[in-house]
Every structure is written in C-alpha cells, then in structure tokens.
Design brief:
This protein starts with 16 loop residues before the first helix and ends with a helix. The longest helix is centred in the middle third of the chain and has 22 residues. Helix 4 runs antiparallel to helix 5, helix 9 runs antiparallel to helix 11 and helix 9 packs across helix 13. The protein has three domains: about 60 residues, no CATH class; about 90 residues, Tyrosine recombinase, N-terminal domain (DNA polymerase, domain 1, Orthogonal Bundle); about 200 residues, hpI Integrase, Chain A. Strand 1 and strand 2 form a beta hairpin. Strands 1-2-5 form a three-stranded antiparallel sheet. A two-stranded antiparallel ribbon has the order 3-4. By secondary structure, the chain is mainly alpha-helical.
C-alpha cells in the first residue's frame, strides 16, 4: 500500500525459494522507506506504469470513490457476469447453480446497479446485518453458513474487480460469521435396529449400507455396480450424484475405498440378486435405483421413506446425514483405529474425527475394521441385519 493505493509489481525472476527470499527483502526495504517517508516509486520501479502516478513525491493519489474514480468501471451486474463466465468452466455444475442462485437472489439485487469501485465497507457490513435479520415473510433468518456463502461470492467478485480496476476492496478486515459445530446426533445401535425394522423392505439395504459405511447421500446415490468389489469386499467411492447429475466426489480426499463389514457385504449381495431378478429394461448400473431402474432422487427418499420411517419407529426427527455420523461413532465405539476410520470417511487426517466426535472416542486400539463386525454380531443377532435366511444357513 502506498499513499492509500494498493500496488502490484512483477519481476521476471523464476519462482524459486531463493528468489522469493530476494523479493521478500526488497518488500521489507520498500515498506521501511514508506514508513519513514523517503520512498521514491520511480527510482525503485522505473519501468512500472505506476511510476507516473507517483511522479510528484509529495503528491497524494486519491482513491476516494466518486464519478471520476469510477467513470470507467463496470457495474456490479456487468462485472459479475464477466466474473461468472470466466470462472464457471472451473466449477462443478452444482456449484455453478449455487453461485447463480446467490447472484440472482442477493448480490445483483443489492449491488447490481452500483459501480464496482463505489461499494464501501460500511455497505457490506450493513448488508450482512440485513441478511442476519429474520425474514418477515418466512419468519426465519438465514444461517451463518448461508450468509458467509453470499458474502464470499461478493468478496471474490469485488477483489477481482479491485485488482483489474485498481481500487481497494471494501472487504479488507471483514471476517466471516462464526459457524457453530455441526450438530452430531447419531443413532445408537438399538435405534439403527428399530429404524431398519420399520423401513420398507425394498429400502432396508439402502439404509443399512448408509448406516454402516458412512457414505454421503450423493455418494451412495451415485454408487455404481462396477465400484463394488465383492472379491476384495471393498466399495470404491469415486463419483457422486448431485441435483440429478453425475459428478465427482465432494473433495479429492473423498475419493476412497471403503471396506465392507459382513452386514454390508450381505446387504449388497442381496441387492445384486434383487437387481438380477428385475426385467432387463428395469436394471440399472446404479446399486440403488427405483423399481424401474432410474437413479433415485434424494428429496423423494427423504420425504417418502426416511422421515416416515423415523416416525413409524418412534425415533426423533433427524436429517439423513446422521447416518454418516452414526457410522463414525459406531466405529469409535467398536475401538477401531482413528486413522482407519478417517480413511473410511474420506478425511485427509484424524483432526476432523477428533473435533467432531471427541465425546464418542473411547480407548482406541483396533486398526483393521474387524471390531465393528464383532460388535454387530454380538448386538444384532436375529434382527434385520442378520436375516432369518442367513441364520438358518448358519445352522
């Protein structure tokens, strides 16, 4: 920053550790000269286009917003269209939809007709406060997470505009709203059994796999048969279905291999056999599909199966994501290794595991996934998980 202006200068040096150190030393010298008032821009950066702007040592370059400063700048509406078009090819279609929704419902209605350089920090803070208020029509307020998403899109647009049109972004010093920890309300093993007993027979396998693998909704809805290895007893998670479209997993770390427990293995074997019994035109490449072979829609499953089954089983209302939390807490209760659990969940390390599930962590000693099989055999004999056919077969 020099005379209230953010300046960027580039070198022709190769990006190496040594050269970064040289540039860092230069930056320290420049900042020191600015502090004591002896910095000469043209002398330090003689070939810079900024040198002419600071030709007079005592001149102050104004960055105040106004008609002259912003005359050649686009409006927020115009620049947001440019920004979206340039970045959309880098995003998943689901994220494109999310950003489009934020722009159309929030950013453009609020700032669309303003020049990008005219928007002030005070306006951003005021807008954040407005977003946090209870909506009179709905009686609800936006969550802190949603507000952060809206402001983050606004921030990205204005920071890019500030870089291109040489003004200070109004987001300097604005921190995101604090988001509380995710609500973890897993099922106990007895509750899992009650849910599976109450679930429609054609959906028991689906929910059993969810409860005992920790797969996200998008992951299990996008699971295809070629990613189920019965010989190795592994599930390869490498794709997902989001808003009716096939896409990649949430993060690179989410691509992983999940080991099947005995109950998951048997459930998937039954699903495969049930799929083979369908007419050929109703078979699907997806492990779980409608009776006609179409990919399932999670909203329909939630509203027509998940919540009614909770009610039928006499269980309190929870969102379906709790199946993922349930898998993690059951593995912890069984004494599985945190590193093993993190790999099954698709976490890059155990930090999130201990942060989110700290109160469910016992003395952990196991490391191979066998402890959960032992726990399930002890607790679920004769129930939904161990079908009567399997019990009879075992004598």
């Amino acid at each position: 920053m020099y005379q209230g202006v953010r300046c960027r200068e580039y070198t022709a040096m190769t990006d190496t550790v040594a050269n970064r150190k040289r540039v860092a030393k230069l930056l320290e010298r420049v900042e020191a000269e600015i502090r004591v008032g002896v910095f000469d821009y043209a002398k330090t950066f003689p070939n810079s286009r900024n040198a002419q702007r600071f030709a007079q040592p005592d001149a102050v370059v104004s960055q105040e917003s106004g008609p002259e400063a912003s005359a050649d700048q686009p409006t927020m509406r115009e620049f947001s269209d440019t920004w979206f078009a340039e970045n959309a090819p880098l995003w998943k279609s689901s994220y494109q939809t999310k950003v489009t929704d934020i722009l159309s419902k929030h950013v453009v209605p609020q700032f669309g007709d303003r020049k990008v350089g005219d928007i002030q920090k005070s306006e951003i803070l005021q807008y954040r406060a407005e977003l946090a208020k209870v909506n009179r029509d709905t009686g609800k307020a936006l969550s802190a997470s949603r507000i952060n998403q809206i402001l983050n899109v606004t921030k990205q647009i204005l920071e890019e505009a500030a870089d291109r049109f040489d003004f200070n972004t109004p987001f300097q010093g604005i921190k995101p709203m604090r988001i509380g920890r995710s609500q973890v309300d897993p099922f106990s093993l007895e509750e899992v059994q009650r849910f599976l007993d109450a679930a429609p027979p054609e959906w028991r396998g689906y929910f059993l796999v969810r409860f005992f693998t920790g797969m996200r909704t998008s992951e299990i809805d996008g699971l295809k048969w070629d990613c189920v290895d019965f010989d190795r007893r592994e599930i390869l998670v490498q794709s997902a279905r989001v808003q009716g479209e096939e896409t990649t997993t949430k993060t690179d770390g989410s691509t992983r291999t999940i080991q099947m427990s005995d109950v998951v293995y048997r459930a998937l074997m039954e699903e495969r056999e049930a799929m083979r019994q369908r007419p050929e035109t109703h078979r699907s490449r997806y492990v779980f599909s409608t009776r006609y072979g179409y990919p399932i829609a999670y909203r329909n499953v939630n509203n027509r199966v998940w919540y009614p089954t909770l009610k039928k089983a006499g269980l309190k209302r929870r969102n379906p994501y709790q199946t993922r939390h349930t898998a993690a807490t059951l593995w912890l209760a069984a004494g599985e290794s945190p590193e093993w659990i993190a790999r099954q969940m698709g976490h890059s390390n155990t930090k999130m595991l201990f942060t989110v599930y700290s109160r469910y962590v016992p003395n952990l000693t196991r490391q191979d996934g066998s402890a959960i099989d032992q726990l399930l055999r002890m607790r679920l004999q004769g129930g939904t998980v161990d079908s009567s056919r399997e019990v009879e077969h075992e004598g």
